[in-house]
Specification:
Layout lengths: L2 E3 L8 E3 L1 H28 L4 H27 L3 H27 L10 H12 L2 H29 L5 H36 L3 H31 L1
Antiparallel strand pairs: 1-2
Amino acid sequence: MEQVVTGEAGAVPLLLHPSLRKARRALSLATLLAANLLPLLGVAFWGWKLFDLIVIYWLETLVIGGFGIMQLVLTTGWFALFAVPFFIVHFGGFMAGHFMFLDLMFGGGRGGDLSAIPRRLHDMIVAEGLWVVLIGLAVSHGLGFLFAVLLPWLRRRWRGRGLREDTEANLAGRAMFGPYRRVMIMHVSILLGAFLATAFGNNFALLALLVALKTASDLYLLRRQWREEEGAAAA
C-alpha cells in the first residue's frame, strides 16, 4: 500500500511506499537534530554567545524565506512575476525590522540603520564561523523542500497533470504566508530563552536551554507535519 506525503507548506501529495516514508521521516528527523546540535557545539567549543545564537536563528528565517520564494515560483506560474517581488519586499522588510529589534535588545545595537545590517551580519558570520550552522540549516530545510515541494512538482510535470484552481490558490497562500507562521512559533521559544539568558547570565546552561527550546519548537512543527501526512493518507 502506498502512502501520501504532504509538506508543511501545503504541497500536493506525493505517493510513497511505507518503507520510503519511514526512511524519509528518519532522514528529516536526523538532519533537524544535527542542524540544531551545531549551535550547541558552537557554545561549548567555539565560544558563541547569546547574540551569536540569535543571529543564527535569524539567518534560518532567511533560509525559510528563500525556499518559500522557490515554492512560489513552482506553484504560482506566471503569477510569480508579481508574487515573488511582493514577498521579497514584504518579507525583507519584516526581517530587517526583526533584526533591528533583536540587535537593540540583545546585541547592543542602537537600531535605525538598515544599511549597516549586511556588514554586521557578514562580520559575525566570518568572525564566529556561523557559516557552518548556516549550511546545516540550509541542508535541513532543503530536504524538506525536496520531499514536500520539488518532487511532487516534478511528478506532476512528468505526468502532464495540472492542479485545480482552489489547490493552486491554497499552495500560493501557504507559500506566501507559511514562513511567517513558522517564524512566529520558532521565535517565541527563542525570545523566552534569550530573556532568561539575559536576566541570569550568559552561561552555558541557559544558552543550552535556548537551543533546547528552539529544537523543541522545530520538533513540534515536524510532528504536526507528520500528523497532516497521516490525515492525508487516511483521506
